[in-house]
Write a structure and sequence with these properties.
The complex is a heterodimer of chains A (245) and B (459). With 245 residues, chain A is of the alpha/beta class. Chain A has two domains: 112 residues; 116 residues, 3-Layer(aba) Sandwich (Rossmann fold), CATH 3.40.50. Chain A is 46% helix and 12% strand. Chain A contains 13 helices and eight strands. Chain B folds into three domains: 103 residues, no CATH class; 247 residues, no CATH class; 58 residues, no CATH class. The chains are: A alpha/beta (245), B alpha/beta (459).
């Protein structure tokens, strides 16, 4: 099984440790993983700002980098969803379709494709899951509280395999953190207020760590936590699933 | 030229709203409480999701056959003795109403809740012509006394605290200063409104559902104010958007079950009043209003926004609405649904609204008629930019971003330089010019990108 590793631009630049943990985890689980050099971005920041017509260059690049893999895996629900929904290249539509149908966010790749049942990870801490919206409501990584439907959560399923880890309950299970791409700067006031409320929900329930499937949301929450000089830290789910502290 | 609007944009209005954080918390908690009541009611029906799907399909059929249903409704309403008026836009609607009022020679009349008349700005129009409209929905009466527009389509004064309502009533209705007891204030409002009901010869109501098969209209209220107005007046004017049609009476069994559960977490509104025929000596006028609806019907990607039954569930669940308040949307209909309806009414004035969202998708999930609201927000963003309503600075930023992200070497170099600058001259990004930094720390800039690490360790 040949897996192409897609590391979104801001993870590449600011959170390389998340890319390293993702790679290490996938290799531990027996995947042959290749990271194609020369990848940049899924195009989402432009598309969500109304400039989808400018994403042609990113799309071309993406197809060039990832057309030859059985699966494409990424430690970001949001970027994965963007590719799944919007990747089209005029003269390479077959390759684009293959990618759209075979790109997975990391935790769904572990639960659905690899069907992981055990992990040798240990993380003896109280952890809250920030269920990022695009992963949840877009990729259906977890059930949504708005729907009258049976609960499930792929990230939770994985975190429960980690030795010593204690999951905390939140008052608002799937409230948005307010990152929202360029929303975080163009609607700064509301974005920050949403982030503060999200952080407070975790703190109120005794979380030592906030984890999730999207570093973008975590970066936003981390920015708030640091400004508040909080002791609570953020970690991407890959870092915990790969942890052997 | 830079597009300019007559009002401040959502982000700025929301920032002002956020200056009082305790109030934002209160607003957020109040609406979240309504969302939770909705959840409880939804879970009480095992068939909830089927009900939503059924409602969505019925409305799909309505939108596909709107022309025929409207004519069927008109014919049956006329057979019932009603007079049917057609208004192409807000102006025509307002003029039709004014003409009817002039015929009656009235200077004052009552109106129950109608978001359509808010959309058409009927009250200020009639005021210009010397006619006072008394809103009889309690929440609407409160915002009317405060000279404000409603901030929510179901809960018009949800942004007001009871103490503020007490103050308003003290000034306008003469209640004792400092009395903010909701029961007392409601009783005072009732007395005040009774007088208006009794004196009013004309009553305007909105319409929740208009049944093509029977020519009847259903108006849902919790206060019975629509009934009080319509039953006491010589002339009942019902104003409705053309999308309010449902084919048959039996379909009410779907919509009435969904509406109040979604709106306020009640199994049904206190009053679901059917108006079919004018009583003897009474006139019943029905004004069917287009006001951009057929244009929206013609926009395939936005068509099903017309399925909306105005329950407001998308507002209660919206994390942005809860923390920015209804007035920040500067449109009669606020929140996520307002943000997909408003650009159709005036794209330039409302170009900011589809961006007032994180695209979290909660709105689409609570919508009782399954409108894909967050997907339409995304699509409106594309249309707004294509039509030239994006700011020049944003356009330039996006073009720059595209230039960098389409070229791996440029991306790599820019990233490396950027991180180096952040490490050595943090002041370049950690300053007041950077909206991220205002209330958030920047992420740490590592020496090595993932691509660098991979090259060194794995290749």
């Amino acid at each position: 099984m040949k897996v192409g590793l897609f590391i979104p631009c801001y993870i590449d630049q600011f959170y390389p440790q998340v890319g390293i943990a993702t790679l290490s985890l996938l290799e531990k689980l027996g995947c042959e993983v290749v990271y194609p050099q020369g990848q940049t971005c899924c195009g989402q920041p432009m598309a969500n700002s109304g400039f989808e017509h400018l994403t042609g260059g990113c799309n071309e690049l993406f197809v060039r980098n990832f057309a030859d893999f059985d699966y494409i895996v990424s430690p970001s629900g949001s970027c994965t969803l963007h590719i799944k929904d919007h990747l089209h290249v005029h003269d390479k539509e077959d390759a684009a379709t293959h990618i759209r149908q075979h790109i997975y966010e990391l935790s769904e790749f572990l639960t659905d494709v690899l069907q992981v049942k055990h992990l040798s990870a240990r993380f003896p801490h109280k952890v809250g899951i920030h269920q990022s919206c695009h992963g949840q409501r877009g990729l259906h990584l977890a059930q949504m509280t708005e729907l009258v439907a049976a609960p499930y959560s792929k990230p939770q399923q994985l975190l429960q395999m980690v030795e010593g880890l204690e999951l905390i309950e939140l008052t608002r299970k799937d409230e948005c953190c307010g990152f929202g791409g360029t929303f975080c700067v163009f609607e700064e006031a509301v974005s920050v207020k949403m982030g503060k409320d999200r952080v407070a929900d975790h703190e109120k329930h005794g979380a030592e760590y906030i984890t999730g499937n999207d570093v973008s949301c975590l970066m936003h929450l981390e920015g708030i936590l640091k400004r508040q000089q909080s002791k609570v830290k953020v970690l991407h789910i890959a870092e915990i699933l790969n942890a052997a502290f | 030229m830079e597009p300019t609007t007559a009002h401040k944009e959502h982000a700025e209005l929301a920032e002002t709203f956020n200056k009082d954080e305790a109030r934002v918390d209160w607003h957020d908690e109040t609406l979240w409480w309504v969302r939770q009541k909705r959840d409880k009611m939804a879970w009480s029906l095992p068939e909830w999701e089927d009900l939503r799907e059924t409602a969505s399909q019925i409305k799909f059929n309505v939108l596909g056959n709107l022309h025929d249903y409207l004519l069927e409704f008109e014919k049956n309403a006329q057979l019932n003795g009603a007079t049917v008026h057609w208004a192409a836009d807000a102006k025509e609607h307002n003029e039709i109403v004014l003409k009817l009022l002039k015929e009656q020679g009235v200077q004052r009349m009552v109106k129950s809740k109608s978001m359509l008349t808010e959309e058409c700005h009927l009250n200020p129009f009639l005021a210009e012509h010397g006619i006072d409209v008394i809103d009889t929905d309690l929440g609407e009466r409160i915002v009317q006394l405060a000279k404000e527009p409603p901030s929510h389509i179901v809960l018009p004064c949800i942004h007001k605290k009871k103490e503020e309502i007490g103050d308003l009533f003290h000034i306008h209705l003469g209640t004792p200063a400092g009395n903010a007891d909701p029961k007392f204030l409601t009783a005072a409002a009732r007395l005040h409104l009774r007088k208006e009901f009794i004196q009013s010869r004309v009553a305007i109501t909105g319409v929740n559902f208009a049944v093509a098969e029977t020519g009847e209209m259903v108006v849902c209220t919790n206060e019975g104010n629509a009934d009080m107005g319509a039953h006491l007046a010589d002339v009942h004017i019902a104003c409705m958007g053309i999308e309010k049609i449902i084919p048959q009476r039996k379909h009410l069994g779907v919509f009435l079950r969904l509406l109040a559960r979604s709106a306020t977490g009640q199994p049904i509104t206190t009053y679901s009043s059917h108006f079919r025929k004018p009583r003897k000596g009474q006139q019943l006028h029905i004004v069917l209003v287009d006001n951009g609806r057929s244009r929206q019907l013609g926009r395939e990607e936005f068509r099903n926004s017309l399925k909306c039954i105005r329950c407001g569930a998308c507002m209660n669940t919206c994390p942005v609405y809860r923390r920015s308040g209804g007035h920040s949307y500067h449109n009669a209909v606020a929140g996520p649904i307002g943000a997909i309806l408003a650009p159709n009414l005036d794209m330039k004035e409302n170009a900011d609204l589809p961006f007032a969202s994180t695209l979290c998708g909660s709105c689409s999930n609570v919508c009782p008629v399954k409108i894909n609201i967050h997907e339409q927000l995304y699509k409106w963003r594309q249309v707004i930019v294509q039509e030239g309503y994006a700011k020049t600075s944003k356009k330039a930023g996006m073009q720059m971003m595209n230039m960098v992200l389409s070229r791996p070497t440029v991306f790599k170099t820019a990233g490396g330089v950027g991180r180096w600058v952040m490490r050595h001259f943090p002041g370049v990004v950690n300053n007041g010019m950077n909206p991220w930094y205002k209330q958030r720390d920047m992420p740490e800039a590592p020496k090595e990108s993932f691509a660098d690490w991979y090259k060194k360790n794995k290749q």
